[in-house]
């Protein structure tokens, strides 16, 4: 790879003028976002050295974005959000930023301590990945920096939130169980824990309503405590469901393990579905039918929003939902009274 690549050489490679390359690399107006992305990609592949120090002095920006993840989502067995962070970091790099990861400890969240990156003025904005407590949200709103929520939202609709379409995903996968003859279907998840779990429960509930099934409170099974720590799943006493809609693949994995320890077989005795399509969906035996979350699209959307906020574009707030799809595997059994929907 050649050293000291010039803008003129990049322009020749892309087939544009040096002025266009300069505008693109410095995020100036007059160049489409698609062309900017192409030019930055080619520049990176050619080994162009971005002078971020000079650019920071000129623009008054650090070109660093803080990515806050609550500590409770980062333990050894919960890799989903770290996978998310990898996609965010890559999308930030493609947009000319660096991602700085901040693991928000339970103590700092409780005490409402802001990250050092803010105190030391090292960042231009924050992407918050994973539900944080309301008092900490209020604290973040005081810092007057661009903020984007990822994978959750709350009553502060003025903060842009990027989520998967939790409601429709859970609605579709519950419909899938009805299509295969199931009518006694439980939901596994603490519906008071996060906005994502709440929306997945509401999608499940809508499917029940449309199929004329009354909600049975004993079929709502909690999976975690008020701090978000996973707990033992307690099966309902008496009548058992034939299928379980789990709020995430990790919980589905744990439920399958519990049922097997009790002597049951999946899906012969119970059908189990998940949500996320993460590693737990494929290490579970049998592999889980689940909802696939489009992590790359969510990350790119969040980075686009934070970039626009930093550049001073009007912040419309609100929530953007990214479509999710069912991935069909081996954890669902069709009952004899299979019905059409």
Number of domains: 3
Percent helix, as a range, is 25-40%
Q: Number of DSSP helices?
A: 13
Task: Report, as a whole number of angstroms, the end-to-end distance.
Answer: 58 Å
Tell me the total number of β-strands.
12
- Placed side by side, the strands forming the largest sheet appear as 2-1-3-4-5-11
Order of helices and strands: HHHHEHEHHEHEEHEHEEHEHEHEE
Shape: elongated
Percent of sequence in beta strands: 5-15%
- Overall pLDDT confidence: 89
Query: SS-based structural class?
Result: alpha/beta
CATH architecture of the largest domain: 3-Layer(aba) Sandwich
Largest sheet, if any?
Answer: 6 strands, parallel
CATH superfamily of the largest domain: Response regulator
Radius of gyration: 23 Å
CATH fold annotation of the largest domain: Rossmann fold
Which parts are unreliable, with pLDDT below 50 for 5 consecutive residues or more?
A: none
Indicate the CATH class of the largest domain: Alpha Beta
Structure explained in plain terms:
The chain has 341 residues and is an alpha/beta fold. It has three domains: 7-50, Orthogonal Bundle (434 Repressor (Amino-terminal Domain)), CATH 1.10.260; 64-163 and 294-322, Rossmann fold (3-Layer(aba) Sandwich); 166-293, Rossmann fold, CATH 3.40.50. Helix content is 39%, strand content 15%. The chain is built from 13 helices and twelve strands. The strands form three sheets. Strands 2-1-3-4-5-11 form a six-stranded parallel β-sheet. Strand 1 (64-70), helix 5 (80-94) and strand 2 (98-104) form a beta-alpha-beta unit. Helix 1 (7-14) packs across helix 2 (18-25) and helix 2 (18-25) packs across helix 3 (33-46).
């Amino acid at each position: 790879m050649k050293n000291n690549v010039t803008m003129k050489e990049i322009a020749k490679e892309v087939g544009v003028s040096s002025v266009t390359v300069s505008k693109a690399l410095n995020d100036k107006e007059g160049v489409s976002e698609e062309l900017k992305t192409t030019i930055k990609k080619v520049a990176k592949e050619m080994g162009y050295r971005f002078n971020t120090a000079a650019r920071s002095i000129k623009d008054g920006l650090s070109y660093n974005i803080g990515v806050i993840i609550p500590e409770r989502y980062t333990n050894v067995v919960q890799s989903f959000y770290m996978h998310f962070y990898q996609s965010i970091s890559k999308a930030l790099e493609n947009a000319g930023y660096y991602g700085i990861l901040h693991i928000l400890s339970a103590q700092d969240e409780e005490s409402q301590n802001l990250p050092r990156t803010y105190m030391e003025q090292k960042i231009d904005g924050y992407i918050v990945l994973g539900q944080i407590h309301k008092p900490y949200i209020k604290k973040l709103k005081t810092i007057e920096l661009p903020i984007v929520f990822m994978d959750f939202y709350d009553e502060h609709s003025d903060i842009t939130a990027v989520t998967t379409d939790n409601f429709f995903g859970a609605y579709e996968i519950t419909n899938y169980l009805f299509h295969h003859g199931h009518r006694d279907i439980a939901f596994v998840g603490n519906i008071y824990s996060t906005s994502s779990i709440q929306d997945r429960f509401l999608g499940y509930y809508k499917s029940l309503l449309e199929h004329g099934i009354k909600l049975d409170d004993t079929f709502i099974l909690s999976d975690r405590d008020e701090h978000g720590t996973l707990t033992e799943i307690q099966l309902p006493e008496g009548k058992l469901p034939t299928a379980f809609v789990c709020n995430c693949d990790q919980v589905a994995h744990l439920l399958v393990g519990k049922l097997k320890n009790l002597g049951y077989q999946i899906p012969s005795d119970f059908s189990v579905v998940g949500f996320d399509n993460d590693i737990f969906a494929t290490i579970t035996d049998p592999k889980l039918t689940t909802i696939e979350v489009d992590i790359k699209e969510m990350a790119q959307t969040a980075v686009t929003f934070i970039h626009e906020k930093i550049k001073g574009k009007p912040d419309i707030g609100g929530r953007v939902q990214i479509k999710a799809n069912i991935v069909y595997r081996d954890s669902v059994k069709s009952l004899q009274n299979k019905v059409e929907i």
